[in-house]
Structure prediction request, 225 residues.
Amino acid sequence: MSISSLSPADYRRFRRHQFWTDHGVFRELFYANFHQIAPGVYRSAQPSPAQLRRWHAQVPLRTVLNVRSPAPHEPHYRLEQDICDQLGIRHLPLQGFGSRDLPERERLLAALELFPQLERPLLIHCKSGADRAGLISALYVWQECGWSLEQARQQLRLWPYGHIRYANTGILDWFLAQVAAAGGNAAGFDLRQWVATAYDREALLASFRPWYRLDWVTDRLLRRE
Prediction:
């Protein structure tokens, strides 16, 4: 196990930012949204260094998939990379996914190509653990754990994950519903082929109609990214 590469001053500064500005106070004191969803597969909100160290002591994590579209200079990214380096965990950022948006075709294909390379035990997280982590968890357990699409869609639900489908975050449910309508429930359906040849991000975004009265919950109250 290596030692921290951050100076004590940088660590304190980054932790203050993570705890207060990045709303870590809620994740660390009230609800980390940490769940095992399949053998060796976990999902959560953004972990603090202490949370990641504690979970790693319980489960020897091999990989952390970070779905926050992080930039290497951001405090939460620096802290996560530092603690992963200390614990010997592979830290992988997954770019291009939003809680109220759909990924570009190339980003989605890159994620699907990455899935078989992820060593378990695996932790998938975003900021709140509700939306982006839910979509990636759904795709992962469908493609890599042998779940049906309908079973996988349960990764996007209000309890216990906090996903709100009746707001703009429902675009993620709409995406999976359209995959199902295209034959996703059929045996032998090739998701990669469908994404490469039939996925139309702009058409799906244009056809989605959220229940806008709940957008204030995701945008203002919960401040989803």
The longest strand covers residues 35-38. The chain has a mean pLDDT of 94. The radius of gyration is 17 Å. The CA atoms of residues 73 and 166 lie 34 Å apart.
